[in-house]
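Lab notes, practical 5.
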Amino acid sequence: MTSRRPLLALRSAAALLAAGSLLVTLADGLDARPTALAFGVLVAVGELIRPGARLGPYPTTPHGTQGATGAIPHGTAPVSGAGLREAAPLGAAGALSYALLGEHAGQPTHHGVAQVVCVVAAAALLGSVPRLARGQGPVLDHLVRRILAVGFTAVCFQPLYHRGFFDGWSGPAYALLLLALLVLTVLCDAVVAAALAHSATGWPFGPLLRDELRAVPGIGSAVCATGAVMALAVAVVGLWALPVFSVPLLLTQLSLRRYAAVRATYRQTIASLARATEIAGYTPAGHARRVAALGQAVGRDLGLPEAELTVLEYAALMHDIGQLSLVDPVPAGATADLPAAEQRRIALLGGAVVRRTGAGPQVAAVVERQADPYPEQPVAARIVRVVNAYEEKVRDAGPGGPLTALEELRLGTGGAYAPEVVEALARVLGNRGGGGQRPGPGAGGRRAGLSDLGRGWVTHG
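Output from the prediction step:
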């Protein structure tokens, strides 16, 4: 069952921090308004130009597909991939540099934690208004991350700086101090992001945190370096340093937008190719999408990293494309009960087609090896085989179909199906009821939950 407590706790903490900061700022007044306005504009611009789809650890299931937490609407997260966790690096760097700002053109600043959080929260919210109006991806959790991250940095730096704790630090030592604070902030932000994703999706926390941490040496390092450099430059030359040092990260963010668009187009191309077997009448409508969605849930349960989940998704979408080479279609596209030699022949034909589409050798290898004995298969191929068999067995079954299909898969774990994948599938199906609720205690509740969710996976689409 997905625990909502961490999600509610983090959102409540961010809301209280923002509200308290606003009240304190209104009571004390805004200090150094030109500086606050300049950093606010920088953060708002960074939020405005971030990609419309979140590049993070949320579901990458096809539009309208039933996911592990219920129906996932189209457009929630069409792009996935490790290393793109921060979709607005310019806004992040601007927010963190404002939190680390101790001087402006050689003169000490007097803004505190409350003003930093208030300015950043208002700017981030303002930059997210067009996205909210268009309904482009999740915004609330992004704001929670931004507020908590900048609040952590400001609390660590501003009080100590104003008390003179850093007076003896200068030159490289001071720069390294700022970088160290930013690294701690990024690590804390990774934990918050993984906790939010875990609470929202129910996926294992460990793999989600690992994917977040893998992004730190990439765009995370650029955000840290730019944030520290901007804070140091503004302290020496004033606000003119902001546009100069923002240009590299601005160009990087524009490149991320183009990359996101390319990835989204590429995935839509893969999904369109996968529909060829449905249009030609070789497989039932929505079969590939259902296998991809359920396969990714199983992959998450097994702790696959983001890159392997992407390969798994593409392979699951195209796993039946080899049937286009058959003269006589397989009835209902059900290949799980075909002789092993025929399954391998179709899989090899599918791999050859995938290689011609440019989907990548890893995707082609998964499609080619989905019919091999499971000890010889990569994990993604094992998942595709088990989920495809489950979807075929339960497709036309009655209320007891999911349990019957799982029992058949368990009986086949001696040779055809990997036992750990079958058990992961059972956990994915058993941990959710039809409406995203855990089945009641006892075998009866579990049976009802499996039946309800099994119908949800195989009837949608």
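Observations recorded by the TA: The first helix runs from residue 5 to 28. Residues 53-84, 433-461 have pLDDT under 50 and may be disordered.
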